[in-house]
Design brief:
By secondary structure, the chain is of the alpha+beta class. Helix content is 19%, strand content 24%. It contains 3 helices and 7 strands. The chain is globular and about 35 Å long.
C-alpha cells in the first residue's frame, strides 16, 4: 500500500520535537515548503502561509502533494523527531511513535 493510499481521505498534520532535532536539515531537503531551519540550527514546521512556527509542538497541515516528501523526511530524520499524525484523532501514522 502506498503512502497516499494509507492516508487517503485523512487530514494529516506534522510537528517536530525540537528537543530531539539534530539540525541535519534532511527534512528541509525533502520538503522545503513544510520545514525550515531557524537561526538556532533546529528545524521547524511552517504554516501554509510560509510563516515559521516556533511554539513547542506547533503543527502544520501536510499538503497531499507533499505527503511522500514529509513521510520520507520523518523516516530519514537522524533525530527521529518528525511526527505525522491524523488530525481527527491525533494518532501518529508516521514517525517514531507510529504503530
Amino acid at each position: 500500500m502506498s503512502v497516499q493510499q494509507e492516508a487517503a481521505g485523512e487530514a494529516l498534520e506534522v510537528w517536530i520535537d525540537q528537543d530531539l532535532c539534530t539540525g541535519d536539515g534532511i527534512c528541509v531537503q525533502y520538503a522545503p515548503e513544510v520545514f525550515e531551519l531557524d537561526i538556532d540550527g533546529l528545524a521547524y514546521v511552517k504554516s501554509p502561509g510560509d510563516e515559521l512556527l516556533q511554539a513547542p509542538g506547533a503543527t502544520t497541515p501536510v499538503p497531499l502533494p507533499l505527503l511522500t516528501d514529509v513521510v520520507d523526511s520523518a523516516k530519514e530524520c537522524p533525530g527521529e523527531c518528525i511526527h505525522v499524525r491524523r488530525v481527527s484523532d491525533r494518532v501518529e501514522v508516521f514517525g517514531p511513535d507510529a504503530e
